[in-house]
Design brief:
One of its GO terms (biological process) is post-translational protein targeting to membrane, translocation. By secondary structure, this protein is mainly α. The protein contains five helices and no strands. The chain is flat.
């Protein structure tokens, strides 16, 4: 005869253990979902998506039963701008995934940041699918090429930004060079003026020195002449004296 009382205890233990694990797992998933929902979003609010949805579900004006339908061209333009923003977010996610994964493996960032990134990645994927469906709803087959057009628009915008930055930098470099050239010219002209002043001072002092030398020569030349004349006079006087004797 089977001892049910003896088997009830192990079954009860297993049941309690399984129930505890299930309860813990459920609470853990709920807590994790709540913590993920409370995390700060990776990207800011999607303004282009909000604009498109506002145009798509435009509310009627006061006093009107139905809202004025928005033209398809306006909706397509709004959806294309939304796709452009999605392309920018896809590029941002792709460029940040590998560095962030490396930092997470090294322990440089916490798990909360990684959870924020994973949630942003899932949101971007859902957003891409939604844009494809909206594009196909507006025009059949447009969902296959809308992101190609958006990618070209984003690339053109990036190129224009780089060209604008290059032109601004070139203007700043030009202004710096004009200022530097003016300083160099002013310093060069100042050096030339100083050189002319020093040259004029040297020439003036040089003109004074030859005059003093000529005067010295004249003085020295006058000495022998005067002595010669004096000797001549003395000689005549001696002759006169000798004749008288």
């Amino acid at each position: 005869m089977v001892n049910w009382v003896g088997l009830a205890v192990p079954f009860a233990y297993v049941g309690i253990l399984v129930g505890s694990l299930a309860t813990f797992s459920s609470l853990y998933r709920k807590r994790k979902a709540a913590s993920s929902a409370s995390l700060e979003p990776w990207f800011p609010a999607h303004l282009q998506r909000n604009i498109y949805l506002s145009l798509l579900h435009l509310e009627p004006a006061p006093g009107q039963e139905k809202a004025t339908p928005v033209p398809d061209s306006v909706l397509k333009a709004a959806l294309l701008q939304r796709a452009c923003e999605d392309i920018r977010r896809v590029l941002a996610v792709r460029s940040a995934k590998q560095p962030l994964s490396t930092l997470l493996q090294r322990g440089s960032v916490g798990d909360d940041l990684w959870q924020r990134f994973l949630r942003a990645e899932k949101e971007v994927e859902a957003e891409l699918r939604d844009v494809v469906e909206e594009a196909n709803a507006l025009q059949s087959g447009w969902g296959q090429v809308i992101f190609q057009s958006a990618n070209e628009m984003v690339n053109n915008a990036i190129i224009r930004e780089k060209v604008a930055e290059t032109q601004a930098k070139a203007k700043a470099d030009r202004d710096w060079w004009d200022k530097e050239r003016a300083n160099i010219q002013s310093n060069f002209m100042k050096e030339l003026d100083d050189a002319d002043v020093s040259k004029g001072t040297t020439s003036a002092s040089g003109n004074e020195r030859p005059g003093s030398d000529e005067d010295a020569v004249l003085v020295e030349g006058g000495g022998p002449a005067s002595s010669g004349s004096a000797a001549g006079k003395g000689g005549k006087g001696g002759k006169k004296r000798k004749g008288k004797k």
